[in-house]
Design brief:
With 339 residues, the protein is α+β, with helices and mostly antiparallel strands. Helix content is 29%, strand content 27%. The chain has 9 helices and 14 strands. A 7-stranded mixed β-sheet has the order 3-4-5-9-8-7-6, with helices on both faces. A 5-stranded antiparallel β-sheet has the order 13-12-11-10-14. Helix 2 packs across helix 3, helix 4 packs across helix 8 and helix 6 runs antiparallel to helix 8. The N and C termini lie far apart (48 Å). The chain binds biotin. The site of biotin has 21 residues, from helix 5, strand 5, strand 8 and strand 9.
Length: 339
Amino acid sequence: MLGDIGIMSGQTGSYLRVLGHLLERGGLDRPVSGGSIGDALGLSRAAVWKGIKKLRGLGFRISGVPSKGYVIRSTPDLLVPPLVKNELRTDTFGHDYHYFPKTDSTNLRAKLLASHLQTGSLIVAEEQTQGQGRFKRHWLSPFGGIYMSLFLRPPLPPDVLGTITLVMGLAIARAIDESTDLRTAIKWPNDILIGNKKICGVLTWMSADLDRAAWVIVGAGLNVNIGAEFFSGSELDHASSLSAIAGRDFSRVSLISNILEKMEVVYERYINDGLSVFLPEIRKRDPLLGREIKIKTLTEVLEGVGKGIDEKGSLILGTHTGDEVSVTTGDVSILKNVT
Ligand code: BTN
């Protein structure tokens, strides 16, 4: 859908500056004259007109009111900076906002931009061509999802930061529940489920020396408004989207704003208090608890019963010999309920 606009561009194009100005000065009712937009943004009348045409092509309803100017009548659900910033209620998260209509991977973009980013910087794409999942899997990223990477510079050593994925997953889960009335679970260590369907995955990257992390990138792919048919092939039938589950679409602009708000609150607390304060809620949302599960680690495959998550963020597995093993990383599948 967005193939015709600035592919691979993280820059704020003129059309987005025109949109920002229209929203700021006119909101959704008051016309703003083409001349004043041009003066304020240093653009020619022709460039303003080109921006208006581009915005209309993207689904913005913009009327020209004779001798008064342009007025926005309605906006599409695009993750463009002016629309998201209009709803954002954070102190810092998402204020430095890098928007890509289409890119390879927002995590990759964040990594390449690292030296220019600070805590709370955000990379967002409407579509990804090389979306990355855990274990080098491909993350299919069609239009309708939210593909975002939050950049952080946590003042912590790398050994404690392994649990940040769980905590950021919790923030996303809280935001989804609040914005949709659906009920999410957090499947250790990085999946968000509704029922038994995965609707979101989190991929965390870190650069660190032994004492302190230089940066952490928390990438999240959330299936929002993607039709049920997209998931009907055998490879994707463990997954779904919010719209397919609820039978209606959701505002991605509201969702991403809410996610950032929850992430900011959770991150502050995590930096000061660590994982432990979040464990009761994470445990309540744990779909592996009491289930017969299989864990593929880097070196072996383990089977047993999910016994919860410990203070270090490891998954506790009750083995068939009666022992308890704590697993620090792996890929979990649910075999069956244990009654
Ligand atoms: C997983 O469940 O394996 C994690 C998937 C993470 C996907 C997101 S989409 C935004 C960000 N950019 C990427 O390339 N990957 C993450």
